[in-house]
Amino acid sequence: MKKTIIWAISLLFVLAILFYIFLYPKLEIIAGYNAKILCSCIFVSGIDQETAEKVDLGFGPLWLASNKVDLYKKAVYSNVLGMHPKQARYREGLGCALVNSSDVQIVDSQTLTAIPGNLGPDIWGKEMVKGTKKLIDILQQAFDTAGSNALQTRAVIVIKNGEIVGESYAQGIDQNSKLLGWSMAKSITSALAGILVKAGHWGLDDPLNLPEWQGDDRKNITLRHVLQMTTGLSWEEEYGSVSTATKMLYSNNSMGAYAASMKSAYTPGEHWQYSSGTSNMLAMAMGSAFQSQKDYWSFPHEKLFGPLGISNFVMETDASGHFVGSSYAYGTARDWAKLGQLYLQEGNWNGEQILDSSWVSFSHEPVKASEGKYGAHFWLNADGRMSFFGASDYWMDGFQGQSVLISPDDQLVIVRLGVTYDEEDFDFNTWVGKIKEAVKD
Question: Which domains are seen in the chain, by residue range?
Protein backbone atom coordinates (compact mmCIF):
# COMPACT_ATOMS: atom_id res chain seq x y z
CA MET A 1 0.00 0.00 0.00
CA LYS A 2 2.81 2.37 0.98
CA LYS A 3 4.66 1.58 -2.27
CA THR A 4 1.51 2.34 -4.27
CA ILE A 5 1.19 5.74 -2.62
CA ILE A 6 4.86 6.49 -3.27
CA TRP A 7 4.50 5.50 -6.94
CA ALA A 8 1.36 7.64 -7.29
CA ILE A 9 3.06 10.66 -5.74
CA SER A 10 6.10 10.13 -7.93
CA LEU A 11 3.94 9.92 -11.04
CA LEU A 12 2.11 13.11 -10.12
CA PHE A 13 5.44 14.81 -9.51
CA VAL A 14 6.75 13.74 -12.93
CA LEU A 15 3.53 14.85 -14.61
CA ALA A 16 3.74 18.22 -12.87
CA ILE A 17 7.31 18.67 -14.10
CA LEU A 18 6.34 17.73 -17.65
CA PHE A 19 3.38 20.12 -17.51
CA TYR A 20 5.60 22.94 -16.30
CA ILE A 21 8.28 22.29 -18.93
CA PHE A 22 6.16 21.53 -22.01
CA LEU A 23 2.64 22.87 -21.51
CA TYR A 24 2.70 25.75 -19.04
CA PRO A 25 4.73 28.11 -21.29
CA LYS A 26 2.31 27.50 -24.18
CA LEU A 27 -0.62 28.72 -22.10
CA GLU A 28 0.71 32.26 -22.44
CA ILE A 29 0.34 31.98 -26.21
CA ILE A 30 -3.25 30.77 -25.85
CA ALA A 31 -4.23 33.52 -23.40
CA GLY A 32 -2.40 36.23 -25.36
CA TYR A 33 -3.87 35.18 -28.70
CA ASN A 34 -7.39 35.09 -27.25
CA ALA A 35 -7.14 38.50 -25.60
CA LYS A 36 -5.58 40.29 -28.58
CA ILE A 37 -7.64 38.77 -31.40
CA LEU A 38 -10.95 38.93 -29.53
CA CYS A 39 -10.31 42.58 -28.65
CA SER A 40 -9.64 43.48 -32.29
CA CYS A 41 -12.57 41.42 -33.56
CA ILE A 42 -14.99 43.27 -31.30
CA PHE A 43 -13.62 46.82 -31.25
CA VAL A 44 -11.95 47.07 -34.68
CA SER A 45 -13.84 44.69 -36.97
CA GLY A 46 -17.23 44.90 -35.24
CA ILE A 47 -17.55 41.11 -34.95
CA ASP A 48 -19.58 40.01 -31.93
CA GLN A 49 -17.98 37.94 -29.16
CA GLU A 50 -19.94 34.77 -29.90
CA THR A 51 -18.93 34.75 -33.57
CA ALA A 52 -15.33 35.69 -32.83
CA GLU A 53 -14.94 32.90 -30.27
CA LYS A 54 -16.58 30.39 -32.59
CA VAL A 55 -14.71 31.35 -35.77
CA ASP A 56 -11.64 33.50 -35.14
CA LEU A 57 -10.75 31.57 -31.98
CA GLY A 58 -12.27 28.29 -33.07
CA PHE A 59 -9.17 26.22 -33.79
CA GLY A 60 -6.52 24.32 -31.88
CA PRO A 61 -6.40 24.59 -28.10
CA LEU A 62 -7.65 28.20 -28.04
CA TRP A 63 -10.90 26.96 -26.48
CA LEU A 64 -8.99 26.37 -23.24
CA ALA A 65 -8.98 30.09 -22.50
CA SER A 66 -11.64 31.94 -20.55
CA ASN A 67 -12.42 35.39 -21.91
CA LYS A 68 -14.07 38.40 -20.31
CA VAL A 69 -15.05 41.47 -22.33
CA ASP A 70 -15.41 44.90 -20.72
CA LEU A 71 -17.36 46.99 -23.22
CA TYR A 72 -17.03 50.14 -21.10
CA LYS A 73 -13.23 50.02 -20.82
CA LYS A 74 -12.94 48.43 -24.27
CA ALA A 75 -10.76 45.69 -22.86
CA VAL A 76 -10.57 41.90 -23.05
CA TYR A 77 -9.17 39.70 -20.27
CA SER A 78 -8.11 36.10 -20.94
CA ASN A 79 -6.51 33.30 -18.96
CA VAL A 80 -6.18 29.52 -19.04
CA LEU A 81 -7.46 27.95 -15.82
CA GLY A 82 -6.41 31.11 -14.02
CA MET A 83 -2.87 30.94 -15.39
CA HIS A 84 -1.04 33.44 -17.61
CA PRO A 85 -3.69 36.20 -17.38
CA LYS A 86 -3.54 38.58 -20.34
CA GLN A 87 -5.38 41.74 -21.21
CA ALA A 88 -5.76 43.67 -24.44
CA ARG A 89 -7.04 47.22 -24.63
CA TYR A 90 -8.49 49.20 -27.52
CA ARG A 91 -7.19 52.69 -28.39
CA GLU A 92 -9.11 54.86 -30.83
CA GLY A 93 -7.36 54.96 -34.20
CA LEU A 94 -4.66 52.51 -33.07
CA GLY A 95 -6.62 49.32 -32.44
CA CYS A 96 -5.86 46.82 -29.68
CA ALA A 97 -2.63 45.96 -27.88
CA LEU A 98 -1.66 43.42 -25.25
CA VAL A 99 -0.58 45.25 -22.13
CA ASN A 100 0.89 44.52 -18.73
CA SER A 101 -1.16 45.75 -15.76
CA SER A 102 1.53 48.28 -14.80
CA ASP A 103 1.34 49.95 -18.22
CA VAL A 104 -2.44 50.30 -18.57
CA GLN A 105 -2.49 54.07 -18.08
CA ILE A 106 0.25 54.59 -20.67
CA VAL A 107 -1.53 52.45 -23.24
CA ASP A 108 -4.93 54.01 -22.55
CA SER A 109 -3.43 57.43 -23.30
CA GLN A 110 -2.40 56.30 -26.79
CA THR A 111 -5.09 57.55 -29.16
CA LEU A 112 -5.28 58.93 -32.68
CA THR A 113 -8.61 60.67 -32.37
CA ALA A 114 -8.69 62.37 -35.75
CA ILE A 115 -7.47 60.47 -38.79
CA PRO A 116 -5.35 63.13 -40.54
CA GLY A 117 -4.49 63.79 -44.14
CA ASN A 118 -6.31 64.92 -47.24
CA LEU A 119 -8.67 62.15 -48.25
CA GLY A 120 -8.61 61.34 -51.94
CA PRO A 121 -11.76 60.56 -53.93
CA ASP A 122 -13.43 57.18 -53.64
CA ILE A 123 -12.72 55.92 -57.14
CA TRP A 124 -15.13 52.98 -56.97
CA GLY A 125 -18.19 54.59 -55.38
CA LYS A 126 -20.47 52.82 -52.91
CA GLU A 127 -22.47 50.45 -55.07
CA MET A 128 -21.95 46.70 -54.73
CA VAL A 129 -20.55 45.13 -57.93
CA LYS A 130 -21.60 41.50 -58.23
CA GLY A 131 -20.17 40.86 -61.70
CA THR A 132 -21.19 38.56 -64.52
CA LYS A 133 -22.95 35.31 -63.74
CA LYS A 134 -19.83 33.36 -64.72
CA LEU A 135 -17.67 35.40 -62.36
CA ILE A 136 -20.25 35.28 -59.57
CA ASP A 137 -20.23 31.49 -59.75
CA ILE A 138 -16.43 31.43 -59.50
CA LEU A 139 -16.33 33.89 -56.60
CA GLN A 140 -18.84 31.78 -54.71
CA GLN A 141 -16.47 28.82 -54.94
CA ALA A 142 -14.36 30.62 -52.34
CA PHE A 143 -17.21 30.39 -49.83
CA ASP A 144 -18.47 27.40 -47.88
CA THR A 145 -21.42 25.40 -49.14
CA ALA A 146 -24.24 24.51 -46.78
CA GLY A 147 -23.06 22.36 -43.88
CA SER A 148 -19.37 23.14 -44.36
CA ASN A 149 -17.07 25.55 -42.53
CA ALA A 150 -13.69 24.58 -43.98
CA LEU A 151 -13.09 27.78 -45.95
CA GLN A 152 -14.73 30.51 -43.87
CA THR A 153 -14.04 33.11 -46.55
CA ARG A 154 -15.29 36.54 -45.53
CA ALA A 155 -14.68 38.73 -48.58
CA VAL A 156 -13.44 38.49 -52.16
CA ILE A 157 -13.03 41.20 -54.77
CA VAL A 158 -11.65 41.34 -58.30
CA ILE A 159 -10.27 44.48 -59.98
CA LYS A 160 -9.71 44.44 -63.75
CA ASN A 161 -8.14 47.38 -65.59
CA GLY A 162 -8.69 49.54 -62.50
CA GLU A 163 -12.39 48.78 -62.08
CA ILE A 164 -14.26 46.42 -59.78
CA VAL A 165 -15.69 43.58 -61.87
CA GLY A 166 -16.95 41.44 -59.01
CA GLU A 167 -17.11 41.22 -55.22
CA SER A 168 -18.81 39.02 -52.66
CA TYR A 169 -19.13 38.87 -48.88
CA ALA A 170 -20.05 36.32 -46.24
CA GLN A 171 -23.12 36.76 -44.07
CA GLY A 172 -22.49 39.47 -41.48
CA ILE A 173 -19.62 40.99 -43.51
CA ASP A 174 -19.97 43.86 -45.97
CA GLN A 175 -18.01 46.54 -47.82
CA ASN A 176 -17.42 48.44 -44.57
CA SER A 177 -16.05 45.52 -42.53
CA LYS A 178 -12.43 46.01 -41.47
CA LEU A 179 -10.74 42.63 -41.79
CA LEU A 180 -7.39 41.40 -40.53
CA GLY A 181 -4.70 40.86 -43.15
CA TRP A 182 -2.22 39.14 -40.83
CA SER A 183 1.20 39.12 -42.59
CA MET A 184 -0.10 41.25 -45.46
CA ALA A 185 0.81 44.02 -43.01
CA LYS A 186 4.43 43.35 -44.01
CA SER A 187 3.73 44.62 -47.52
CA ILE A 188 2.24 47.82 -46.10
CA THR A 189 5.32 48.25 -43.92
CA SER A 190 7.42 47.90 -47.06
CA ALA A 191 5.35 50.57 -48.81
CA LEU A 192 5.81 52.97 -45.88
CA ALA A 193 9.56 52.34 -46.00
CA GLY A 194 9.46 53.20 -49.71
CA ILE A 195 7.68 56.48 -49.03
CA LEU A 196 10.43 57.40 -46.56
CA VAL A 197 13.07 56.50 -49.16
CA LYS A 198 11.31 58.76 -51.67
CA ALA A 199 11.30 61.54 -49.07
CA GLY A 200 15.06 61.14 -48.57
CA HIS A 201 14.94 59.89 -44.98
CA TRP A 202 17.09 56.85 -45.78
CA GLY A 203 18.49 54.82 -48.65
CA LEU A 204 18.31 51.13 -49.40
CA ASP A 205 21.93 50.54 -48.52
CA ASP A 206 21.99 52.72 -45.42
CA PRO A 207 22.47 50.90 -42.09
CA LEU A 208 19.27 50.64 -40.08
CA ASN A 209 21.17 52.34 -37.25
CA LEU A 210 19.44 50.77 -34.26
CA PRO A 211 21.29 51.84 -31.08
CA GLU A 212 21.65 48.29 -29.72
CA TRP A 213 23.55 47.23 -32.85
CA GLN A 214 26.36 49.78 -32.79
CA GLY A 215 28.79 47.65 -30.81
CA ASP A 216 28.84 44.59 -33.07
CA ASP A 217 28.50 43.37 -36.66
CA ARG A 218 24.75 44.02 -36.67
CA LYS A 219 25.59 47.66 -37.41
CA ASN A 220 26.15 46.48 -41.01
CA ILE A 221 22.50 45.45 -41.46
CA THR A 222 20.95 47.76 -44.06
CA LEU A 223 17.41 48.68 -45.03
CA ARG A 224 17.79 46.41 -48.08
CA HIS A 225 18.68 43.46 -45.85
CA VAL A 226 15.65 44.11 -43.65
CA LEU A 227 13.21 44.42 -46.54
CA GLN A 228 14.55 41.29 -48.21
CA MET A 229 14.64 39.25 -44.96
CA THR A 230 18.40 38.70 -45.21
CA THR A 231 19.52 40.33 -41.94
CA GLY A 232 21.20 37.13 -40.78
CA LEU A 233 19.66 37.46 -37.32
CA SER A 234 18.65 34.33 -35.45
CA TRP A 235 14.87 33.77 -35.60
CA GLU A 236 12.19 31.08 -35.21
CA GLU A 237 9.05 31.77 -37.26
CA GLU A 238 7.11 29.08 -35.41
CA TYR A 239 3.65 29.52 -33.87
CA GLY A 240 2.78 26.10 -32.49
CA SER A 241 5.35 26.34 -29.72
CA VAL A 242 7.18 28.86 -27.57
CA SER A 243 9.49 30.56 -30.08
CA THR A 244 10.98 33.95 -30.77
CA ALA A 245 7.89 34.77 -32.85
CA THR A 246 5.40 33.93 -30.10
CA LYS A 247 7.51 35.58 -27.38
CA MET A 248 7.52 38.73 -29.51
CA LEU A 249 3.77 38.78 -30.06
CA TYR A 250 2.56 37.69 -26.63
CA SER A 251 5.28 38.52 -24.08
CA ASN A 252 6.79 41.86 -25.11
CA ASN A 253 5.49 45.41 -24.99
CA SER A 254 7.99 46.46 -27.68
CA MET A 255 8.01 43.88 -30.44
CA GLY A 256 10.60 45.70 -32.52
CA ALA A 257 13.02 46.04 -29.62
CA TYR A 258 12.68 42.35 -28.78
CA ALA A 259 13.37 41.33 -32.39
CA ALA A 260 16.35 43.71 -32.54
CA SER A 261 17.87 41.95 -29.53
CA MET A 262 18.46 38.78 -31.56
CA LYS A 263 22.06 37.80 -32.27
CA SER A 264 23.64 37.35 -35.68
CA ALA A 265 23.69 33.83 -37.10
CA TYR A 266 24.73 34.66 -40.68
CA THR A 267 26.47 37.44 -42.57
CA PRO A 268 23.86 40.03 -43.72
CA GLY A 269 22.72 39.42 -47.28
CA GLU A 270 23.77 35.77 -47.50
CA HIS A 271 20.88 33.90 -45.86
CA TRP A 272 17.14 34.35 -46.40
CA GLN A 273 14.93 33.78 -43.35
CA TYR A 274 11.27 34.75 -43.26
CA SER A 275 10.91 36.70 -40.02
CA SER A 276 8.04 38.69 -38.56
CA GLY A 277 10.55 40.17 -36.16
CA THR A 278 12.35 41.80 -39.08
CA SER A 279 9.18 43.68 -40.09
CA ASN A 280 8.67 44.94 -36.54
CA MET A 281 12.27 46.16 -36.33
CA LEU A 282 11.58 48.11 -39.51
CA ALA A 283 8.32 49.54 -38.18
CA MET A 284 10.12 50.64 -35.01
CA ALA A 285 13.04 52.16 -36.95
CA MET A 286 10.61 54.32 -38.93
CA GLY A 287 9.94 56.28 -35.76
CA SER A 288 13.27 58.09 -36.19
CA ALA A 289 11.79 59.99 -39.15
CA PHE A 290 9.26 61.85 -37.01
CA GLN A 291 9.40 64.52 -34.33
CA SER A 292 6.54 63.06 -32.29
CA GLN A 293 4.70 59.83 -31.75
CA LYS A 294 1.53 61.41 -33.15
CA ASP A 295 3.37 62.31 -36.36
CA TYR A 296 4.51 58.68 -36.60
CA TRP A 297 0.97 57.37 -36.09
CA SER A 298 -0.40 59.85 -38.63
CA PHE A 299 2.17 59.04 -41.30
CA PRO A 300 0.41 56.03 -42.95
CA HIS A 301 -2.83 57.97 -43.20
CA GLU A 302 -1.29 61.15 -44.55
CA LYS A 303 1.08 59.58 -47.07
CA LEU A 304 -0.51 56.26 -48.06
CA PHE A 305 -4.10 55.60 -47.03
CA GLY A 306 -5.46 59.14 -47.38
CA PRO A 307 -4.34 59.70 -50.99
CA LEU A 308 -5.93 56.34 -51.92
CA GLY A 309 -9.27 57.46 -50.50
CA ILE A 310 -8.97 55.01 -47.59
CA SER A 311 -10.49 56.54 -44.48
CA ASN A 312 -10.89 53.71 -41.99
CA PHE A 313 -7.77 51.54 -42.19
CA VAL A 314 -6.27 50.55 -38.82
CA MET A 315 -2.55 49.89 -38.34
CA GLU A 316 -2.36 48.55 -34.82
CA THR A 317 0.53 49.39 -32.51
CA ASP A 318 2.02 47.40 -29.66
CA ALA A 319 2.03 48.70 -26.09
CA SER A 320 5.18 50.73 -26.81
CA GLY A 321 3.32 52.64 -29.52
CA HIS A 322 5.17 51.17 -32.51
CA PHE A 323 3.26 49.67 -35.43
CA VAL A 324 3.06 45.90 -35.47
CA GLY A 325 4.38 45.94 -39.02
CA SER A 326 4.41 42.16 -39.23
CA SER A 327 0.86 41.22 -38.49
CA TYR A 328 -1.86 43.61 -37.36
CA ALA A 329 -3.47 45.68 -40.13
CA TYR A 330 -7.23 45.94 -40.66
CA GLY A 331 -9.01 47.20 -43.76
CA THR A 332 -12.01 46.54 -45.95
CA ALA A 333 -11.70 44.29 -48.98
CA ARG A 334 -11.79 47.42 -51.13
CA ASP A 335 -9.05 49.02 -49.03
CA TRP A 336 -6.80 46.01 -49.56
CA ALA A 337 -7.66 46.09 -53.27
CA LYS A 338 -6.61 49.75 -53.50
CA LEU A 339 -3.23 48.92 -52.00
CA GLY A 340 -2.79 46.21 -54.63
CA GLN A 341 -3.94 48.56 -57.38
CA LEU A 342 -1.37 51.15 -56.28
CA TYR A 343 1.38 48.63 -57.00
CA LEU A 344 -0.24 47.59 -60.27
CA GLN A 345 -0.13 51.27 -61.28
CA GLU A 346 3.60 51.47 -60.52
CA GLY A 347 3.03 53.58 -57.40
CA ASN A 348 0.94 56.25 -59.14
CA TRP A 349 -2.53 57.25 -57.97
CA ASN A 350 -4.61 59.94 -59.67
CA GLY A 351 -1.44 61.52 -61.02
CA GLU A 352 0.40 61.48 -57.68
CA GLN A 353 3.53 59.33 -57.49
CA ILE A 354 3.08 57.92 -53.98
CA LEU A 355 5.80 55.33 -54.50
CA ASP A 356 8.60 55.63 -57.02
CA SER A 357 8.14 53.14 -59.86
CA SER A 358 11.67 51.95 -59.12
CA TRP A 359 10.53 51.06 -55.60
CA VAL A 360 7.65 49.01 -56.97
CA SER A 361 10.10 47.17 -59.23
CA PHE A 362 12.41 46.54 -56.29
CA SER A 363 9.48 45.19 -54.27
CA HIS A 364 9.00 42.28 -56.68
CA GLU A 365 12.64 41.74 -57.56
CA PRO A 366 13.56 38.17 -56.47
CA VAL A 367 15.93 37.81 -53.55
CA LYS A 368 18.56 35.36 -54.74
CA ALA A 369 18.80 33.61 -51.39
CA SER A 370 15.03 32.97 -51.40
CA GLU A 371 15.21 30.88 -54.59
CA GLY A 372 12.91 33.28 -56.39
CA LYS A 373 9.95 33.15 -54.03
CA TYR A 374 10.38 36.45 -52.16
CA GLY A 375 11.03 40.10 -52.88
CA ALA A 376 10.90 43.09 -50.52
CA HIS A 377 8.08 41.94 -48.21
CA PHE A 378 6.11 40.51 -51.16
CA TRP A 379 5.81 36.90 -52.34
CA LEU A 380 6.80 36.07 -55.92
CA ASN A 381 6.16 33.37 -58.51
CA ALA A 382 9.59 33.56 -60.15
CA ASP A 383 10.04 29.87 -59.36
CA GLY A 384 6.76 29.02 -61.10
CA ARG A 385 5.31 27.05 -58.20
CA MET A 386 1.88 28.68 -58.65
CA SER A 387 0.83 27.12 -61.95
CA PHE A 388 -2.05 29.51 -62.69
CA PHE A 389 -0.09 32.64 -61.77
CA GLY A 390 2.06 34.46 -64.30
CA ALA A 391 5.82 34.67 -63.87
CA SER A 392 5.49 38.39 -63.07
CA ASP A 393 2.62 37.96 -60.59
CA TYR A 394 3.35 38.84 -56.98
CA TRP A 395 1.21 39.05 -53.88
CA MET A 396 0.67 40.00 -50.26
CA ASP A 397 0.12 36.92 -48.13
CA GLY A 398 -1.18 36.29 -44.62
CA PHE A 399 -2.10 33.58 -42.13
CA GLN A 400 -5.38 31.71 -42.75
CA GLY A 401 -5.38 32.45 -46.47
CA GLN A 402 -5.28 36.26 -46.71
CA SER A 403 -4.12 37.30 -50.18
CA VAL A 404 -3.87 40.31 -52.46
CA LEU A 405 -2.66 39.15 -55.87
CA ILE A 406 -1.13 41.72 -58.23
CA SER A 407 -0.98 40.54 -61.84
CA PRO A 408 0.68 43.11 -64.16
CA ASP A 409 0.29 41.03 -67.34
CA ASP A 410 -3.43 40.52 -66.74
CA GLN A 411 -4.04 43.96 -65.19
CA LEU A 412 -5.73 42.21 -62.28
CA VAL A 413 -5.91 42.61 -58.52
CA ILE A 414 -7.61 39.77 -56.64
CA VAL A 415 -8.34 39.93 -52.90
CA ARG A 416 -9.38 37.09 -50.62
CA LEU A 417 -9.92 37.49 -46.86
CA GLY A 418 -11.08 34.82 -44.43
CA VAL A 419 -10.36 32.47 -41.53
CA THR A 420 -9.30 29.19 -43.14
CA TYR A 421 -7.73 27.02 -40.44
CA ASP A 422 -6.01 24.65 -42.86
CA GLU A 423 -4.89 26.76 -45.82
CA GLU A 424 -4.66 23.66 -48.00
CA ASP A 425 -8.47 23.49 -47.87
CA PHE A 426 -8.65 26.53 -50.19
CA ASP A 427 -6.88 26.13 -53.53
CA PHE A 428 -6.12 29.80 -54.17
CA ASN A 429 -3.95 28.96 -57.18
CA THR A 430 -6.71 27.13 -59.10
CA TRP A 431 -9.34 29.68 -58.07
CA VAL A 432 -7.18 32.50 -59.45
CA GLY A 433 -6.80 30.58 -62.72
CA LYS A 434 -10.60 30.41 -63.08
CA ILE A 435 -10.94 34.13 -62.41
CA LYS A 436 -8.27 34.98 -64.96
CA GLU A 437 -10.09 32.92 -67.57
CA ALA A 438 -13.47 34.51 -66.73
CA VAL A 439 -12.30 38.12 -67.08
CA LYS A 440 -10.12 37.81 -70.15
CA ASP A 441 -10.42 40.82 -72.46
Answer: 2-108 (no CATH), 133-438 (3.40.710.10)
